[in-house]
Amino acid sequence: MLNIILKDCQPTRDNLLPLAFTRPVADLRTGILTIREKWETMLPGVYSYLTLDYLSRKYPCINNPEGDNIIISAHYLPTPNIIRCIKKLQPGEAITYNGEIIAARGAVDSTPALLTEIDEIPPVIKNLYDLFLLNGIAIEFDFNLITKGRTSAPLSTTNTIIGDPGKIFIEEDATVEGVTINAKGGPVYIGKGAEIMEGSCIRGPFALCDHSEVKMGAKIFGATTVGPHCKVGGEISNTVFIGYSNKAHDGFIGNAVIGEWCNLAAGCVVSNLKNDYSEVKLWNYPARRFLRTGLQFCGLFMGDHSKTGINTMINTATVVGVGVNLHGAGYPRNFVPSFMEGSAAGLYEVPASKFLDTARKVMARRNITLSQVDADIFETLYKITDDFK
Question: Per-residue DSSP letters for 123-191?
Fold first, then answer.
């Protein structure tokens, strides 16, 4: 059995903050599966992480004592060709793209002696917005990966299907009644125990992961992924919810990525296009400034455990850190540091004790306990993120 280590690489890892503040890069989601789940499905082995020290207690590294590991740069997504190349690696060898190592075989701290450049352009996540830009391709890839050779649960005749029914896959115990599903633009995947309520309109590519809900009358455009244990409604376009987050009411969000344990309250609206149609700039943590993206459409990137109050307005290309609580009138600034509360009128720091108390209550509603390991991670993040306040 291969010993496979998914490695957080710099500077890419820091480009993926605030989402990477609370998880290794491999636990980010694009498509149906997280990056780790994609690798696990295509390349069986014993998996672990090589990440920052403060995360390593929750996400430890399992190092082969004989030094024979497959070390994969976690921001790369697997392809059949990459998998074939990895299986051929000998100790001391690596495969690269544009000189950057994709995967190597050897000890964790070793330098490969032989580098082989692959002959394809690999899918890679190097910026926050890559998560939604690649989401359509990733949904299609994951759909084929996890449904191959399987039969979908039957689709109720109460639904209206546009396009190829073979592009719709429903897992057991999912509920889909009175829904319009358009699969012409891409596949639609409905996970175990998930539900799409009546009156909803869904356009693929779309993924609703296990035990998530789409509320009545929702309008969802591709390419959108709703991770596990989420509740969504209103209008959504090209957005990734990593998991355990809610946008259950009317309001719009587009070209966005939402972390775990977030809540966008009723009437929350996220702008994804500037009024003058100009290129957007986005806050970048390592640069400590706003950088050009080359994008016209870009919405919200929200770290874990952040929330908005009712009718909150979010400006185009906004980055919200971990543990933020936004409410009140007006547009908050385009970068909100972690553990802050307030509105366009001003922000103030939330004490760690108050944040942790709220996090425990939120998680308890899903019958999950905030562990001491998680609490320690947040305590560390208070110190790490202090410079940005």
Answer: -B--STTHHHHSHHHHHHHHHHHHHTT--PPPPPTTSEEES-GGGEEE-TT-EE-S-EEE-TTS-EEE-
